[in-house]
Amino acid sequence: MDTGAHWQAVLAGRTCIKRYNDSALSNSPFMASKLDPAQWQAIQAQTQAAQYLTPFEQLASCSIKKALDTLEDDIDLQQTVFILASTKGNIELLGQMPDERMLLHHSAKLIAEHNHITNKPVVVSHACVSGVVALLHASRLLQADRYKHAIVTGCDRFSRFVLNGFQSFQALSDEPCRPFDAARKGLTLGEAAATIILSAQKSETISGRLMSGATSNDANHISGPSRTGEELAAAITRALFQAGISSKEIGLISAHGTATPYNDEMEAKAFEHAGLLNSPVHSFKGYTGHTLGAAGVLESVMTLEALRHQTLIPSAGYEDLGVPKPINVTRKLQPTAIDYALKTASGFGGCNAAIVWQKE
User: From residue 128, how far is each of 71, 132, 296 by CA, in Å?
Assistant: First the structure.
């Protein structure tokens, strides 16, 4: 339920992926990472049981409150922009509420108001790169001096709609996902909300610095990624150039790593093109599953924790290399010096994104 608990789970090698047999969600058993009833009660308590907020909006609001509570000093919310990253929003309520109420910008407005953020919010709904793109967009708004602070929240709920969609692709694994492993069978879905607060001002609670980022699109297929990895490599190379560092200085890669055959192969090829075969790489999805619009933010939070603790995160479920390029997948917890970390993401429609984090 918070960053510290996630880090402790990593230290313990614990995944929250479980097998479910829930006829309300699926006609057959499935693997997933889902919040339990006790956690939902805590979320509702954090949001004062605001009945005008849907569960999706309560989840996002709870994450924002927790993030704000970690700050030593309050930020000026009148000089703050709220950016919501999501792929599905309230899709589970389709047909149960007016169409206008379903729109993501409507949810963003309600979440912002609930958290006393007065500026017009921004929505980024760009498949599975949404979280990374939202962080990059926030950084650019701050660099342009449009705002002093940005609250970036990635959020997506687990629903029958999403589960059935990926089942129709035959993309789901019948065991916890195993990114980059030779025996991987597909992805595991998860649900989460994660928040990072970016600021143009120094403070005592800085975890790291978002140095740069870039996006690209391979225009290969509506769902399948590039076969060469050149396009993700182009985004990575541009992000490194903007950061003013070389590929050899990247001490950690938090990969998209969905554990589908094509995604993992594409990323491995991209890392080779970008000169990153020696950089330690992991996928966090073996712990939480693929949290869709929340993934880029959640996995960046854990990247910042790795920088803070100067420790490599092992890629849960990985045993034997199963991609065509010899990437350096982390197998166990390992203290090491890390100055710069790379976060990558890819999604349907051929979208790719990369950002560079620096240790503060």
Answer: 28, 9, 8
Query: How many C-beta atoms lie closer than 10 Å to residue 294's C-beta?
Result: 31
d(CA 332, CA 82): 36
Residues 155, 294: contact at Cβ < 8 Å? yes
> Residue length, the chain?
360
Radius of gyration for the chain, computed over Cα atoms and rounded to the nearest angstrom: 19
Say what angle helices 230-243 and 261-273 make with each other, to 10 degrees: 50
Task: Give the tens place of pLDDT for each residue, 21-56.
Answer: 999 999 999 999 999 999 999 999 988 868 899 999
Domain count, the chain: 2
Confirm if 184 and 264 have CB atoms less than 8 A apart: yes
CA distance 152 to 110: 15
Q: Note whether 108 and 40 are same-domain residues.
A: yes
* Judgement on whether residues 13 and 85 belong to the same structural domain of the protein: yes
**CB atoms closer than 10 angstroms to residue 27:** 8
Q: Is the dihedral of CA 9, 171, 322, 230 positive or negative?
A: negative
List the beta strands (DSSP E) in the chain.
18-20, 30-33, 80-85, 122-124, 149-156, 189-190, 192-199, 208-217, 250-255, 280-283, 311-312, 328-329, 334-335, 340-347, 351-359
Chain segment 101-120, per-residue pLDDT in tens: 999 999 999 999 999 999 99
- Sequence-distant (6+) residues with CB within 8 A of 182 are 319, 320, 321, 322
Tokens for 307, please give them: 């920088």
C-beta neighbour count of 359 within 10 angstroms: 18
Q: Is 238 left (phi over 0), alpha (psi -120 to 50) or beta?
A: alpha
Cα gap 197→319, rounded to integer Å: 35
By residue range, what is the domain housing residue 25? Answer: 3-199
Shared domain for 226 and 286, answered yes or no, is yes
